[in-house]
Write a structure and sequence with these properties.
The chain is of the alpha/beta class. The protein has 19 helices and 15 strands. It folds into 2 domains: 290 residues, Rossmann fold (3-Layer(aba) Sandwich); 146 residues, Isoleucyl-tRNA Synthetase, Domain 1 (Orthogonal Bundle), CATH 1.10.730.10. The strands form 4 sheets. It has a 6-stranded parallel sheet with strand order 3-2-1-12-13-7, with helices on both faces. It has a 4-stranded antiparallel sheet with strand order 5-4-6-8, covered by helices on one side. A 3-stranded antiparallel sheet has the order 9-11-10. 48% of the residues lie in helices and 15% in strands. The protein binds ligand ME8. Ligand ME8 binds next to β1, α1, α7 and β12. The site of ligand ME8 has 19 residues, from β1, α1, α7 and β12.
């Protein structure tokens, strides 16, 4: 059975492709966790999903770091891209493709698009001087600069003047302003949309889309002038098309109309201005939505290599478990706002939300089923109190919350069921029912609690996939994929006579030990 409520049967989610000048940290992990959570949610909901991530490997910045490391640039990008890929595999991300801008098919797609836009007359040769930030790989306008520095990196901007090719971005300014105004969900949250509209209050300059090869040989050659390579952003944004087989692939037709781009606020302008105007010039529909999340700081300060406070996902996995870290990221940040990570807070959340609330609920209920009923489920109904209603309410709300990218709210909602079930255990006191010999009632209470645990495991699949599997295994179940969300969360599916097993605790308590 498919979901009756599904408006669209397809869902396409992208993360930014990450620069290979740094190894994966909390920021890259966060965006990819969000994309993975959405991909997993809509899959279990019954949609066909495509999830794209990867690495961005051309441009000045990459050339410079490779040079500083004293390594051939091709060798350097292979190494760091490999680290991203193996890290993402270790973290269990379920992407459909890990794209690299050095992939052959991507180079061909970029060249094809450049030729098309050039032939249509939207690319011209000219001269330009402007203030460039290598960190951002883009020019800044006078209005955006802060005391001659990059507003993001705070580094002095370099004045660059050279002959180059330009994309007639200005030609599409009015169209873009109208499109943003007419489609409120095109860029969200609203504050970022407003930022884009205010940027568009000033006349838009054309976009310099080439670099002379004698200064920067590392890039995709322009198909119409071999002395130039493609500007890194013009190349990188196109990955979202290559990844689904543009122009002829079946996936392109299926997924382009339902594409959602997910990025942080640092790359709002390239995604909100360069990209839709490029798409317009190519004759393609704009993307469906651009969702902008906030920035992670660490202990209330900016994270940086020089401060030595970079948070790495594999370190967190080793120390606390990746599910725990993933939970923290999803639970802690309100989408669109900045948040601060601290190990102390992570430890607090693990002990309170995971070990105490969820972990204890699961071990208590399974422990009592073992103690009082030899681990055998007795399907006695009618003792669920408000629990079935709470579960149903959450099941109804989750799709809307996920549509709105409200991950934190979704987790808080799910925890309402955890809290309600813990309160129920305290109020009905199954140990007293046992003492008083009320076995039928006890069986009913345990059945309700076991159902809560089963439904929690379904709710948690996208957020904490390993934990979900662990809980289901304890219940002797697995999600096989032949049932979708709405069926899985229906009350009363645990079979009479089936066996459950308490096994090990889901979340060991942890201690905070600053180095
Ligand atoms: O900008 N908090 O790559 P990038 C939250 N290659 N998210 C963070 C973060 C933080 N502190 N730091 C990084 C690029 N991110 C380009 C993108 S796309 C066609 C090209 C995440 O390696 C967040 O998703 O600098 C941000 O937008 C992205 O990493 C920037 O990655």
């Amino acid at each position: 059975m498919r979901n009756k409520a599904t408006e669209e049967n397809f869902f396409y989610i992208t993360t930014p492709i990450y620069y290979v000048n740094a190894e994966p940290h909390i920021g890259h992990t966060y965006t990819t966790v969000l994309a993975d959570t959405l991909a997993r949610f809509w899959r279990v909901y019954g949609k066909e999903v495509y999830f794209l991530t990867g690495t961005d490997e051309h441009g000045d910045k990459i050339m410079q770091v490779a040079r500083d490391a004293g390594v051939e640039v091709a060798e350097y990008v292979d190494r760091i891209s490999g680290i991203f890929k193996t890290t993402f595999e270790e973290l269990g991300f379920t992407y459909d493709r890990f794209i690299r801008t050095t992939d052959k098919d991507h180079e061909e797609v970029v060249k094809g698009i450049l030729k098309k836009v050039y032939d249509a007359g939207d690319i011209y040769f000219g001269e330009y001087g402007g203030y460039y930030c290598v960190g951002c790989e883009r020019f800044y306008t006078e209005k955006e600069m802060v005391d001659g520095r990059c507003p993001d990196h705070q580094t002095p901007l370099e004045y660059i003047a050279e002959k180059n090719y330009f994309f007639k971005m200005s030609k599409y300014q009015d169209w873009l302003v109208n499109h943003i105004k007419e489609n409120p969900s095109f860029i969200e949250p609203e504050r970022h949309r407003n930022k884009v509209l205010s940027f568009l209050d000033d006349p838009l300059a054309d976009l310099c889309i080439s670099r002379p090869k004698d200064r920067l040989p590392w890039g995709i050659p322009l198909p119409f002038d071999d002395n130039y390579v493609t500007y890194v952003w013009f190349d990188a944004l196109i990955n979202y098309l290559t990844g689904i087989g543009y122009p002829d692939g079946a996936n392109f037709a299926k997924y382009w109309p339902v594409v959602h781009h997910l990025t942080a606020k640092d790359i709002l302008i390239p995604h909100a201005i360069y990209w839709p105007t490029m798409l317009k010039a190519m004759g393609l529909d704009p993307y469906k939505t651009l969702k902008i999340h906030g920035y992670w700081q660490v202990d209330e300060t900016k994270m940086s290599k020089s401060l030595g406070n970079v948070v790495r996902p594999l370190d967190m996995k080793l120390k606390y478990g990746f599910e725990q870290f993933r939970y923290f990221l999803l639970r802690e940040m309100s989408f669109g706002l900045d948040s601060s990570f601290s190990e102390e807070l992570l430890v607090e959340r693990i002990n309170s939300d995971l070990a105490n609330d969820l972990g204890n609920l699961v071990s208590r209920v399974l422990g009592m089923t073992e103690r009082y009923q030899d681990g055998v489920v007795k399907k006695v109904e009618g003792h669920e109190g408000k629990l079935a209603d709470v579960a149903e309410g959450i099941a109804d709300e989750l799709p809307g919350l996920m549509q709105g990218f409200r991950f934190r709210k979704a987790i808080l909602k799910i925890w309402e069921l955890v809290t309600a079930a813990n309160a129920y255990v305290e109020s009905v006191a199954p140990w007293t029912l046992n003492k008083e010999g009320k076995h039928e009632e006890l069986a009913g209470v345990l059945y309700a609690l076991l159902e809560v645990i089963r439904i929690l495991a379904v709710f948690l699949t996208p957020f904490m996939p390993e934990t979900s599997v662990k809980i289901l295994t304890k219940l002797g179940l697995e999600l096989t994929g032949d049932k979708v969300f709405e069926e899985l969360v229906m009350w009363g599916q645990l079979q009479d006579g089936s066996k459950v097993q308490k096994g090990e605790a889901l979340f060991p308590r942890v201690e905070y030990s600053p180095e």
